[in-house]
Amino acid sequence: MAAKFEVPQGWVLQAYQYALDPTGPQTSMLESHAGGARFAYNTMLRAVKANLGQREAEKSYGIASADLTPSMSWSFQSLRNGFNRLKHQVAVREDGTPWWEENSKEAYANACKNLAAALKNWDESRRGTRKGQRVGFPSFKSKRSARKFAFTTGTIRAEANRHHVTLPKLGTMRVHESTRKLARRLEAGTARILKATVRFERGHWLVSFTCVVARAAQRPAHVKRLAPVVGVDLGVKDLVVAATPDGREVLRVQARKEFKRASRKLRALQRKAARQAGPWDAVTESRREPSNAWLRTQQVIAKQQVRVANQRRDRLHKLTTLLAQSFDVIGTETLAVKNMMASGGARKKGLNRSIADAGLGEFSRQLDYKTTWYRSKRVQADRWYPSSKTCSGCGSVKAKLALSERVYVCDNAECGLVIDRDLNAAINLARLARAEQSACFDSGGADRKSTAPAALVAVKPESSNGSASPKSEAA
Ligand SMILES: [Zn+2]
């Protein structure tokens, strides 16, 4: 694979994910590949650290820069070549037999690629050439780290029978869901697999194929267009509320009952486990052998977690598809997850659990690539735009609006508007999107041409530097 793959015109990146159903020996091989990838990552990280440490020590002895041990290259190629040299000494068993041969070399190469990226991010971050939060020096991967590895070359296929996939070294494996959507595209030549990432998550091995797919960027004919321009508010109580600039509510999606029930059941199970004799004895403050009852509850919890996660994923996809297909221009808040959840957070603390749990970043990312697919457009409000606090009637801005206030009541005596809180915010966002849209057309219609992947316009009145840059790929 070339260093940088350019997505052809009219093609988009899209990922297809399947849960694998490996045989016993295949499970061992999956484990072995994940372990091998971790080993390569840690081996090369250790080498980089040793090199840095050596140079540091030499400097402290006053050795001239020119005479220092040369610094090691952190490029992907150098790290991969480095591992290929080292593996003959380090990736062998005590009796001298090499175990590295048992895994595909791709697993090691991709681990080196990840390490190269992590080092580059850290380096750029410390030099100040990288935006966003400070990136720390890469750390070693422990046995508890995510089990994950990837293939970019070799035999990577979805089999014609729609129920098996083939990966290098691992061979053909059964998958739980039908692969027909991907298989049809591969057969028709409208999709190409670039990469297969395998990871272990919540008790299952999953494979994700990153593909380039030829997609006509347009709305499917059967989908009804609900309105040209809308604002979408991620509600506190409802999932989303969409409204037009003239104040018409066009969409309100509520959290589904099944989902609430499933989440409630999960929390009840977790409380149950807390009452049972787990591995930690709070009385004596020591570890102990957990009871069988506790272990049984853990198994039920794991199953319920998978169920809840699947429901959430499914619903989030349906929601973002609906939004991207039903409207031409969608105004939203800036959904910088880190700003909202990690630091600060107060502004959307009560945000509907089901969206918050699934990750606002994921909502944002899906909306971005789906608006590209369906030729709609997303307009993000400035991070500090007070969509909730602004009155959609008179434009006055409240100083404070508690999350518990479900209804917006305008303080301006002459206006006195009383309106559903989320609807009010959605109307404001719709107007902002409309204003931005007309501004684009006024300035020579430059925007009409930009149907290419980055059809995203961020409204940034006081050009701040920390705007989130969503990935354009699907996952
Ligand atoms: Zn008002």
Task: Describe the 3D structure.
This protein has 475 residues and is an alpha+beta fold. It folds into three domains: 76 residues, no CATH class; 102 residues, no CATH class; 192 residues. The chain has ten helices and 17 strands. A seven-stranded antiparallel sheet has the order 2-6-7-1-5-4-3. It comes from Hoyosella subflava (strain DSM 45089 / JCM 17490 / NBRC 109087 / DQS3-9A1) (Amycolicicoccus subflavus). It holds the Pfam family OrfB_IS605. Keywords: DNA recombination, DNA-binding, Metal-binding, Transposition, Zinc. This is Rv0922-like protein.
Helices and strands in order, then pairings?
Layout: E1 11-21, H1 24-60, H2 76-90, H3 105-127, E2 148-151, E3 157-158, E4 164-167, E5 171-175, H4 180-188, E6 191-201, E7 204-214, E8 227-234, E9 240-243, E10 249-253, H5 257-275, E11 280-281, E12 286-287, H6 292-326, E13 327-332, H7 337-342, H8 353-358, H9 360-373, E14 377-380, E15 407-409, E16 418-420, H10 421-442, E17 456-458
Parallel strand pairs: 8-13, 13-14, 14-17
Antiparallel strand pairs: 1-5, 1-7, 2-6, 3-4, 4-5, 6-7, 8-9, 9-10, 11-12, 15-16
The structure holds zinc ion.
Average pLDDT:
83
Q: Give the number of helices.
A: 10
Task: Tell how many strands the DSSP assignment holds.
Answer: 17
Tell me the series of helices and strands, N- to C-terminal: EHHHEEEEHEEEEEHEEHEHHHEEEHE
Query: Structural class, please?
Result: alpha+beta
Radius of gyration, in angstroms, nearest whole number: 26 Å
Q: What is the domain total for the residues? A: 3
- Poorly predicted ranges (pLDDT <50, ≥5 residues)? 337-350, 444-475
Largest sheet: 7 strands, antiparallel
Question: What percentage of amino acids are in beta strands?
Answer: 15-25%
List each distinct ligand once: zinc ion
N- and C-termini, Cα separation: 20 Å
The proportion of residues forming helix, as a percent range, comes to: 25-40%
